[in-house]
Design brief:
Blueprint: E1 5-10, H1 12-30, E2 35-41, H2 45-52, E3 59-67, E4 80-81, E5 93-101, H3 105-115, E6 121-130, E7 142-147, E8 152-153, E9 169-172
The structure holds inosinic acid and magnesium ion.
Inosinic acid is lined by residues 43, 68-69, 75, 98-106, 151-153, 157.
Length: 179
């Protein structure tokens, strides 16, 4: 698996150190607030597990399964929700967690859908944010790392469902995503 990578972009100690900082910010902001974390599956699952264990506040956790990618390295432009029911968040503060903000399409669609449930607030936390122009209106309130506009895998992020279990974030060798 490691041999499929061109380089490691962010190693495990760097990720974990950054999570300490993110968790501290979130803990400060949500002190005394009743809040619900909604993690987007599958990409945010490892990020979620490591981040939430660093937040010593009472919270509730829900997961949403959505997809906008269908196997390739570019978004298809359509966001599909895979469940019938939305989490019960009326009047609650919601913190959405996702692995990466790329085009912004996924988070824009999910935020809009959550807003229909009339939460007290919605904020977005992502591990990674790509430096690029976003055509959908979405931004993050908490960001782990800003990265260049390249396709990354590991620490929850996949290419065709593989590489999620790498403990760091890396870039695939170009021939791995060709044809
Ligand atoms: P967006 O809707 O374009 O912002 O991207 C949404 C989803 O695409 C993310 O939650 C990821 O699952 C996936 N994605 C975007 N960029 C990458 C990447 O570089 N590597 C792996 N998955 C990615
Ligand atoms: Mg994916």
């Amino acid at each position: 698996m490691r041999g499929d990578l061109e380089k490691i972009l962010i190693d495990e100690p760097a990720i974990l150190a950054r999570l300490d900082g993110l968790a501290e910010e979130i803990t400060k902001d949500y002190q005394g607030k009743d809040f619900t974390v909604i993690a987007l599956l599958n990409g945010s699952i490892i990020f979620m597990a490591d981040l939430l264990r660093r937040i010593p506040l009472p919270l509730t956790l829900d997961c949403l399964r959505v997809s906008s990618y269908h196997g390739g390295t570019e978004t298809t432009g359509k966001v599909t929700f895979h469940q019938m029911n939305m989490p019960e968040v009326r009047g609650r503060h919601v913190l959405l967690l996702d692995d990466i903000l790329d085009s912004g399409l996924t988070l824009a669609a999910v935020s809009a859908r959550i807003m229909e449930e009339q939460p007290a607030s919605v904020r977005v936390c992502v591990l990674l944010k790509k430096r690029k122009e976003r055509y959908a209106h979405a931004d993050s309130d908490y960001t782990g790392f800003e990265i260049g506009d390249e396709f990354v895998v590991g620490y929850g992020l996949d290419y065709q469902e593989r590489y999620r279990n790498l403990p760091f974030i890396g870039v695939l060798r170009p021939e791995m995503t060709r044809g």
